[in-house]
Amino acid sequence: MDCLFCKIINGEIPSFTIYEDEQVKVFLDINPNTNGHCLIVPKKHIVTVEDLEDSLATHILKVEKIIYQKLREKLHIDGLTICQNNDLGQDVKHYHVHLIPRYKDDNWKMQFNQESLKEPEEIFKQITNE
Ligand code: 5GP
Ligand code: ZN
Question: Does the C-beta of 9 come closer than 6 Å to ligand 1?
C-alpha cells in the first residue's frame, strides 16, 4: 500500500523511533511543533478515529502515559498536549496521535478565528434540537 506511515512502520522509510511494541510505533515528528513532538502510530493501517477498535484505543492510551513519563524524565517537559486530526486537517491518512510536549516558556499557541464563531447556546440547540 502506498502509505507513508505504513512505510515507516515496516522500515522502508527511516524514523527516529522512541518506542515500539506489537501494536504501535512511536517516532519523532519530522516537522515538530515543540522539542520531542512525536506520533503514536498503530501498525494496522486505519485512517480515522471511526476505524479505531476499542482495544487498540485502550492500548494507545496506555502508550500515551508511558511516553509522557519518558518525556518528563528525559526532556523535563512541563505538560503534554495530545491531539489527533480526522479528515479535514489530517495530512497523513493513516491514523496517528500527536504528542506535543509543553514547556513553561514555549509560547506555543493554537490559533483559531474566534471572531467568526457563534454563541455556544446556538450550537447547543443545533446539536441537541432543543
Ligand atoms: P496530520 O496533519 O496528518 O495530523 O499530521 C501529520 C504529521 O506527520 C505532521 O506533523 C508531519 O510533520 C508528520 N510527517 C509527515 N511526513 C513525515 C515523515 O516522513 N516522517 C515523520 N517522522 N513525520 C512526518
Ligand atoms: Zn498506512
Answer: no
Q: What is the residue range of 115's domain?
A: 4-128
Whether the per-residue pLDDT at 1 is higher than 80: the answer is no
| Least distant ligand from the CA of 92 | 1
Instruction: Judge whether 96 counts as a catalytic residue.
Output: yes
The CATH number assigned to the domain holding 100 equals 3.30.428.10
Ligand 1 neighbourhood includes 83 CB (under 6 angstroms): no
Q: Mean pLDDT score of the chain, rounded to an integer?
A: 96
Domain count of the fold of the chain: 1
pLDDT band at 111 (very low <50, low <70, confident <90, very high): confident
Position in ligand 1 atom list of the atom nearest CA 89: 2
Q: How would DSSP label each residue in 76-119?
A: --SEEEEE---STT-SSSS--EEEEEE-TT--------GGGPPP
State the distance from the centre of ligand 2 to the C-alpha of 7, rounded, in angstroms. Answer: 7
* Residue 129 Ramachandran class (φ > 0 left, ψ -120 to 50 alpha, else beta): left
Q: What is the reported pTM? A: 0.96
Among 53-57, 91-95, 115-119, name the one with the lowest average pLDDT. Answer: 115-119
Binding site membership of 48 for ligand 1 (Cβ less than 6 Å): no
